Amino acid sequence: xxxxxxxxxxxxxxxxxxxxxxxxxxxxxxxxxxxxxxxxxxxxxxxxxxxxxxxxxxxxxxxxxxxxxxxxxxxxxxxxxxxxxxxxxxxxxxxxxxxxxxxxxxxxxxxxxxxxxxxxxxxxxxxxxxxxxxxxxxxxxxxxxxxxxxxxxxxxxxxxxxxxxxxxxxxxxxxxxxxxxxxxxxxxxxxx
Length: 192
Ligand code: FES
Ligand code: FES
Known about the structure:
Layout lengths: L5 E8 L2 E8 L4 H8 L18 E4 L2 E4 L12 E3 L12 H8 L9 H16 L21 H7 L10 H18 L13
Parallel strand pairs: 1-5
Antiparallel strand pairs: 1-2, 3-4, 3-5
Bound molecules: FE2/S2 (inorganic) cluster (FES) (2 copies).
GO molecular function, one term: oxidoreductase activity, acting on the aldehyde or oxo group of donors
Protein name: (2Fe-2S)-binding protein
Pfam families: Fer2 (PF00111), Fer2_2 (PF01799)
């Protein structure tokens, strides 16, 4: 008898548990959009190249079109629908709104999820391909426009809103650093 390709899985999405039967080959993106109605996460290329489908998995960014839903069981999935605090927008969402970090908006949920994780990665001292001094003693690299562009390079914007996107990420990172009492990104205003 051929092995079954279907089963029931339980996903924790934005703090809520959802149990659903799925074909084991279903991607997390299709489970979110087609099975659970969470259409904030967008499908662009469906092959890992555009970043429109970016969500957070245990706080780390992933492209959900390349992630099987079954592999997300037991992990915390955060989508764009879950980043705000009730009526209060996430600081990255607010920065995108304030600084017009979008045009048509199709890439925006992925950009915002990616930016949330990118800011946390930077704050944790993770270097990027644009970091010039990667020695541990060099500390957290300044979050320059080049750093932001590199760290956000997995998220394409067909409208070309990149200048405003970089400014929005810079603003949100600066706010976040201030809140944490850090000064290492205090010079990013106007980074774009
Ligand atoms: S839809 Fe997933 S990377 Fe493009
Ligand atoms: S705002 Fe239109 S694709 Fe980015």
